[in-house]
Amino acid sequence: MPPFRFSPIKNQAELAEAIKYTHLKCFELCKNTFGRYLPVAGNIGIFCHEAAEYEFLTKLREELTDANDNWNKKYYRLHQPISVSPQGEVPGAVYSYLYIRQPDETKPQVGDLDFVLDKAEYNELKNSLLADKQIKDLKVLDRPDLDLLELADPEVDALAFIGTKDMTENIKAGNK
Fold first, then answer.
1. How many CA atoms lie within 13 A of 77 on its CB side?
2. CA angle, 69 as apex, 114 and 77 as ends, to 5°?
3. Taking the mean position of all CA atoms in its chain, how far away is CA 49?
């Protein structure tokens, strides 16, 4: 896996390519682990690997999103959702929220997205992982503030997370 694929992103077209790539790679992770594709939560994140890239992408995100409509001051609602068309058997998706991650040279991933799983199936899966069941590339995210499963393959430069809420539900829960 080449280090820092796409970085530094220097324009909106390169951002669009990184988003499409992240979408495809995360769906690949999902299919390889679950044998099927899960629905997306509606958010996508792009990871920076240097300060100038982060500064540029933050300014671009400010143009593309509503600063007042965000979840955790992290995911910002896009003025125009980003649609990724189906490619082969990989379904398309619409992303309504964008996240730009601060630089971290130790993490080569291009980006991440969240998938949604039915609460009962999610709980069963999470409990099996907590009981030491091994599922390739899947683990419980080690963050007490987030109830998510992490889907990561060291050979794939994207990450996916699995939860039980889409972004609309996260926004509603955050506004209570």
1. 10
2. 45
3. 16
Instruction: List per-residue pLDDT tens for the chain, 176 residues long.
Output: 456 889 999 999 999 999 999 999 999 999 999 999 999 999 999 999 999 999 999 999 999 999 998 888 899 999 999 999 999 999 999 999 999 999 987 788 999 999 999 999 999 999 999 999 999 999 999 988 889 999 999 999 999 999 999 887 877 776 55
Q: What is the domain partition of the chain in residue ranges? A: 12-174
Contacts 24+ apart (CB under 8 A), 124-127: 125/149, 125/162
pTM, rounded to two decimals: 0.94
CATH annotation of 12-174: 3.10.180.10
> What token pair was written down for 64?
């593309």
* 148 vs 125: CA distance, rounded Å: 11
